[in-house]
Fold this sequence. Notes:
By secondary structure, chain A is of the alpha+beta class.
Amino acid sequence: MAERLVRVESMVGLHSRPAAEFVKAAAQCPVEVSVGRHTGELVNAKSILAVLALDARPGEHLRLCAEGEGAEEVLDRLASLFTQFSETNA
Amino acid sequence: MRELLGTGVSSGVGVGPVRVVSGTVPEPPADPFSGDPVAETARALEALEAVGRELESRAQAAGGEAKDMLAAQALMARDPDLAGEIRIGISAGLTAARAVYESFGFYRELLSGASDYMSARVSDLDDVRDRAVARLMSLAVPGAPESDEPYVLITQDLAPADLALLDPRQVVAFVTEEGGPIGHTAILARAMGIPAIVSCPGVLELKDGERVLVDGASGRLTVDPEDEQIRRAKAAERARAEAVGSATGPGRTKDGHPVPLLANIGGPKDVDRALASGAEGVGLFRSEYLFLDREVPLTEEQQIAAYREVLEAFPRVVVRVLDAGADKPLPFLPPAAVEPNPALGERGLRLLRRHPHVLRGQLRALAKAAEGLPADRLRVMAPMVTDAEEARVFTAACREAGLTQAGIMIEVPAAAIRARDIAEEVDFFSLGTNDLAQYVFAVDRQVTSLTRLQDPWRPALLDLMAFAAEAAVGAGKGCGVCGEAAADPIMACVLAGLGVTSLSMSAPSLPLVRAALAAHTLDECRAAAAAARAARTETQARRAARAALPALETLGL
Lengths: 90, 557
């Protein structure tokens, strides 16, 4: 299983626009993707409701996981979104 | 031909067929389901997909924040985990509608336990649920209607989110059964420039498609109007437009007494519109609007940049320091404890005294933003001040930061009654009529069924405003008004007559107020103020003021 650790940079946490963009990108991935706190339970990254319920705050670290063919590329793409959120400061 | 009378809150004339938006979507009954669970699941998911498509296309049509909100709602409708819950519910014997309802309920609970920001999303979630359940139960979909032709929108009271989505070209007027002159429907209608009437009893009984004439100035709704009536209403509307067009320049009475006309703004984004409406300055910069929906405060640099942009655009700017608490909580300014009644709890200056470093930081940023500008350009005021001691503390904090103009809002009745004591401690007053009404009439602003009690024409409120204005004038200081009352052109004349020295309002209201002031002498305004204060009810006060202001007729008011 492939894994990435990312930091929530956006001012609003993983909420509103950043959350929607993340979920939309995850939903387009051909493999299963999950997200959660480092120590906590992982949830379906393609579910906006599950991602919102994580209530990830600015500065928190999250774990992204994917399994299957192309998992590494998928995670690279999703992880890069987190740095974009910090640039637009959404 | 029938007529209904309500309170006109946004002037203008609209004619068109009625669309009544009524009621809420009921909870689907928990009847056992014995049909084919596969087909029932497909039906549930189709309904959600249809809702997702509809929200998606609305998102494309909307702009700004509404677009993001709708796009997120579309994602909720198509959520795969939600679909999983629904599938389980139906295979356990629930109907599609009930399974949708219960599955949303599961996430609703999850989200409302999270942060304040998340709890606010619960209503977005409920909206998606209601749309899906309405489809499954073949009920009318709540919210703003779809229509091919322009219509008059009739509701009990619309949620701000629904209002924000309305297409101003489609809606020729709003009429609500409840609501008051300072409710969000009224404020939004004015901001969008759409004629509106609120607290209009009986209006929900109109039938869809009935043609009505709405006069947002007089508050009169005419069912099945005759051509002559429409012609007359439109002529009055034209007279108003002409008066507005011909009154330019700074605010003053007919005999030249200056009453500066200022704009209420929430940030630099509102500057252009204020300038376009001829605002001479900013009378209320609601600085907390820069911070809403943020988990951490703006940095000092970000604050300075926002203040500087506004200060460079106008010769005078009144900034209200963070007015947090009650209906506008900020995560970094928590009250000491959970309060059963936040409107009477720690809010405004009370909250800033609990977090003095936040106040000091904001005042420091303000002082830096004003560096190099004329000394009287920036004026800073505190919200929710009760007595002279609090006023003294705030003025001292301003002086320490190097700010020369420190004032307070008069919102607490005690501050209005003892304005004489407070006038010695500050450089100016600003009357916040919305909160002053809330507190003096003991009516929560959020309780829409009681908004009629908050009418700014009630003589008790007029008296309080007179006390404050007299105290300020007696001490040689300014007393502005920055509540919605200032946006009513007739009330604006009365306020000038009470001795108020400037009027601040949302930008679209400025031109008509300018025209009403320019058409009357200061003596006429004083006579109107005295007549209104001599009245016993709000209706009599309004009528008495009108009678004392002879030029209103020619203005089409």
